[in-house]
Amino acid sequence: MRHSLTRPALITLLCALVNSRLDYCNSVLAGAPAVLLSRFQSVLNAAARLVFSANRSAYTTHLLQELHWLRVPKRIQFWVCGLTYRCLNVTAPQYMSECILPASSRSSGRQLRSTESISLLVPSTCRATIGDRAFPVAAVRAWNSLPQRVRAASSIVSFRRELKTYLT
User: Fold this and answer.
1) Which of 26, 77, 138, 152 is the most exposed place for a label (fewest CB within 10 A)?
2) Which residues pair with 102 in a beta bridge?
3) What is the pLDDT of residue 95?
4) Which residue among 13, 40, 71 closes a domain?
């Protein structure tokens, strides 16, 4: 079937069938073990090899770059940060938005530098294995790791563009 499709048609088909399945609820995979993520990465690598008709042992780094596809850990960070942006701009469900608090909401009498930035307050967790993978913790840590120019984007479209440029 690969030989009967043009490259743009094959890319569209793979994005619809493969990438959409990889991206579905992948924010749940934040902090997942590398063994689990390597399985997802092998599926993404196979899709990139299929597009370029590369053999099974070919390196996929440059193939993924040419397709403008992020590696799996970066894809997870992309979607988690996108959800966080939506939570901060009140376009996400309310139950998610309530989990994320700006660092400026901390009730201290002092004027801190964090009140001027767009940093978020990292919730404390009891268990590092489970608690750090929870959305409020993983989202805040991913958000705070972004540079200020990415966090200060004015719209979701410009945020995604800046974020993808930063992650590549």
Assistant:
1) 152
2) 120
3) 83
4) 71
